[in-house]
Amino acid sequence: MKKTFSHYTCSICGASYEPDEVTYTCPKDGGNLNVILDEASIKKNLTPDTFFTLPEASLWRYLNLLPVEDPGGVGTPLRRAGWTPVYKSTRLADQLGLRDLWIKDESPNPTASFKDRASAVVVARAGQINAEVIVAASTGNAGAALAGMAAAVGSKAVIFAPRTAPPAKIAQLLVFGAKVILVDGTYDQAFDLSIEATNHFGWYNRNTGFNPFTAEGKKTAAFEIWEQVINQIPDQKKPLTVFIPVGDGNIISGVHKGFKDLHSLGWLEQMPRIIGVQSEGSAAIANTFHQGDEAIKAVQADTLADSIAVDLPRDGVRAVRAARETGGTYMIVPDSDILTSIAELGRVGIFAEPAAATAYAGLKAAASQSLVTEDDPVLVLSTGSGLKDVKAAMQAVSAAPIVEPTLDAVKEVL
């Protein structure tokens, strides 16, 4: 077992477990497990300047802060996940009355979404424990990420997806060679079915809000934000505010975990303020946050942002805490604002799918309410490519005109 991985703790009851004692959630109450690093060993052997294990432009540069062994796969897409670009958009910043605005674009990941981070680490873990088949429930992105990462190293993947998932995402699953099972039901029903299959067939389950290693992959985005943005801000007086789209809650809890790891090691002076953003058609976590408790109540999700359409979030408690413990909040935005945000991001060269654009829609709402002001450095996490859902993208823009092949016809349109 890798020395940086000390033990698990339950996010609900606080119970501790040895690395080989549990696999998924707390046996006592079903709470999500936190992977706890061996901080004493890390501090003894590493500094903020020397913990980068590898020079490669991927999440594996942070291997010393990950609870898995080096997975190999050099020269494959598995080693390309992460280290996504950060763009500084002065035009969007000016429109919102901000001085500093960064967009971290996750679309350059191998399967074009943030979910490659979690899948890369889960695939590494699966290899470490000799799991032959990895299964996941997904509306598309997590499944595509698992299928792609598994294919890169020759592992078998089974994906349960709602039959309503966007065709482009289903196409990815099939092209990557996964066994795809379309469920005539919701994401939540696909999730539950995948758990049943896991227990029956003995497969290794990648599900977010269930497998503790998914958050460990997602926390690498926080390491990159720390390296690419926070450490580059001179004389930082106010903490960075990070806007994150939220569905089942695992991305925001994973990013929060990454910042907490850095802060606990003494390498991050100020914890960023984290603001979660949900569609008003799928706002179970935001509702809970604003009610002031942690009792997540299911909703009937109805939003065009399929990647964050969740009835009962599986990592809701930690997602609530991510905002609450950092002085952040939750924004709720309508689908119409999400579509508008797709177009606005497109005009600065970023093609975002609906879930990804949700974070920017949340920033606009926060700016209009003065929850962020000119002095606040802000980063928006754009989690996936617009090519994932072309149908939604076309709803965000006007249709292209069709003209006769004459210059006069062109002049008339112009």
CATH topology label of the domain at 77-112 and 214-395: Rossmann fold
CATH first level of the domain at 77-112 and 214-395: Alpha Beta
Sequence stretches where pLDDT stays below 50 over 5 or more residues: none
Task: Report the total helices.
Answer: 15
The major pleated sheet works out as: 6 strands, mixed
Which architecture of the domain at 77-112 and 214-395 would the CATH scheme give at its second level?
Answer: 3-Layer(aba) Sandwich
- The total beta strand count reads 13
> What's the SSE pattern?
EEEHEHEHEHEHEHEHHEHEHHEHHEHH
Distance between the termini: 65 Å
Strand order of the largest sheet: 4-5-13-10-11-12
Helix content: 25-40%
Strand % is 5-15%
Rg on CA atoms, Å: 21 Å
What global shape is seen?
A: globular
Q: Based on helices, strands and strand pairing, what is the structural class?
A: alpha/beta
The mean pLDDT is 94
Would you write up a description of this structure?
This protein is of the alpha/beta class and 414 residues long. Among the domains are: 1-45; 77-112 and 214-395, 3-Layer(aba) Sandwich (Rossmann fold). The chain contains 15 helices and 13 strands. The strands form 3 sheets. It has a 6-stranded mixed beta sheet with strand order 4-5-13-10-11-12, with helices on both faces. Helix 9 links the parallel strand 10 and strand 11 (273-279). Helix 3 (116-128) packs across helix 7, helix 9 crosses helix 11 (316-324) and helix 10 (284-291) crosses helix 11. It is globular. The relative contact order is 0.12.
